[in-house]
Structure formats: C-alpha cells, structure tokens
Design goal:
This protein is mostly helical. The chain has helices at residues 2-19, 24-27, 33-44, 51-65, 71-85, 87-92, 95-120, 131-153. It has one domain. Helices cover 76% and strands 0% of the residues. The termini are close together.
Length: 157
C-alpha cells in the first residue's frame, strides 16, 4: 500500500502544479504536469497505474479546472491505455525517441481534447493551444530522471 500512496503523492503534486496560477505571459506554455506524471507511471508500473487511474485523475482534473465533466477523464484514460499497452516498447526507446513519443501523445491529448470541447461547447481552435506539447517535450527528460530517482529511492514496485 505504501507504493500506491507514494504514487498518489506525485499525482497530487501534479494536480497542484496544474492549477497553480501563472502570469498570463507564460500561461499558454504551462506543461501538462498530470499528463507527464501519468505517462511516467504508466510506463514504469503499468500493473499499478493504468486506465482506471487515468480516468480518475482526469475526472478530478475536470472538477478542478471546471471543464466539461469527463472530457479530461476520457483523454487521460486513452493516454494511459496507449502507454500501458506499449510500456515495454517505450521503455526501450532512446531519450530522443521518448521525447518524440511524448510529443505525439501530448499532441493526441490536446487535439482530441480540443475536438471534444469543440463538439460539446463553442470552443474554437487557437494555435497557442499547442504550446504545451513543446513544453511537455522539454520537461520530459527531467521528469523522467526525477521520478525514476523517486521510485528507486522509495523502492516503489
């Protein structure tokens, strides 16, 4: 049970980072902390963090951000499914290939979320919606190293 609570702690920190106010100049560049942390745990421990975890985290994120209930839940569940089913392949990729995979998964997440928001509300596409893809790619190597050290230090298996 200790491993699950330590994983939940990292997800909790990513929720805090997701809702922390930022200056308007850099708000468009906010990384998707929850997405990056969820991808890491789905790749590292797919038997503990999987589609259910992604759906629950997305549902909580919908509540915190005030978005259409279930939109982030569906997207994060799909991302968790993709990463959990391909974890062996993604683990064996080089750092550059992993960054590209994170970019593709982030692009899928943002474009599918936009499509869902556009279908359910009157959201319109704005190019600045795609900046988090780049910042997710930039923070991935650091997040990978920090979360791996965290997992090994606390022997989360």
């Amino acid at each position: 049970m200790g491993g699950i609570s330590l994983i939940a702690f990292t997800l909790f920190i990513s929720f805090i980072l997701a809702i922390t106010p930022l200056p308007s100049i850099i708000e468009a560049f906010r990384p998707d902390w929850l997405l990056v942390v969820l991808i890491y745990w789905c790749i590292a421990l797919p038997h503990k963090v999987n589609v259910g975890t992604g759906w629950i985290c997305g549902f909580i994120l919908d509540i915190l951000l005030g978005s259409v209930l279930g939109s982030h839940a569906v997207m994060l569940a799909l991302v968790a499914y993709i990463c959990s089913t391909n974890y062996l392949t993604i683990r064996n990729f080089s750092a550059v290939q992993q960054v590209l995979i994170i970019g593709l998964v982030s692009a899928f997440y943002h474009l599918a979320d936009y499509w869902l928001q556009h279908f359910l509300t009157t959201a319109y596409f704005q190019p600045e919606l795609l900046w988090p893809i780049l910042t997710n790619m930039i923070i991935w190597p650091t997040a990978l190293v920090l979360l791996r050290k965290y997992r090994r230090a606390f022997r989360i298996r």
